[in-house]
Amino acid sequence: MKERKEAAPPAPAVPAREAARPEVTRRQFLRSGMYGTIGLFAAQALVGAGVMLWPAKVSGFGGRVLVPKKLSELSPDDPPLKVREGKFYLSRLPEGVIALYWKCPHLGCTVPWNESENLFHCPCHGSIYEKTGQNVGGPAPRPMDIMAIEIDGDNIWVDTGKITQRPRHLPEHVTKV
Predict the structure, then answer these.
(1) What is the pTM of this model?
(2) Nearest of 170, 150, 171 to residue 161 by alpha carbon
(3) Is the Cβ–Cβ distance between 166 and 175 less than 8 Å?
(4) Which pLDDT belongs to residue 135?
(5) Which of 163, 156, 144 is nearest to 92 (CA)?
(6) Is the pLDDT score of 5 beyond 80?
(7) pLDDT level of residue 54 (50, 70, 90 thresholds)
(8) Are strands 119-121 and 128-129 parallel, antiparallel or unpaired?
(9) Are 97 and 89 in contact (CB under 8 A)?
(10) What is the DSSP secondary-structure string of 81-149?
(11) CA distances from 81 to 8, 36, 41, 94, 122 (A)
(12) Is the separation of the CB atoms in 97 and 91 below 8 Å?
């Protein structure tokens, strides 16, 4: 009798869902994790740079400051108006107004107004300034610095970002009203 070779039983069929799913190797997993971490750090650096470089809205010192009193409320006989938000004094003079940076040009002390003498007196080294900011005594090398002024109707705007040094007080430093 002839032996008949029987065919091998067919291999079990792989379900279609398992065949379609690729297997992730350990190397692929670690590489994906590494690239993901690098991407995360790069995104964090870009966000930080964007926040740092985005222009900030400046208010107060370094920007435009609205003087709290109206021009019509100021008189040449009044003492200089201290505006804390902008770090300046607004002096009303007979010919106009002038904004004086309250920092002493000598060593940077804050210079207060002395009501009894009608002068600015630096408490640190004794520099003395007139209502115009002109130095009249002490070690200060020059007058107090001035800031740009813009008059809009009865409102006074001072640009504290534009501080100007001057060798002496001149009439053109005063904003005419």
Answers:
(1) 0.67
(2) 150
(3) no
(4) 93
(5) 156
(6) no
(7) confident
(8) antiparallel
(9) no
(10) EEETTTTEEEEEETTEEEEEESB-TTT--B--EETTTTEEE-TTT--EE-TT--EEESS-SSPPPEEEE
(11) 106, 59, 51, 15, 17
(12) yes
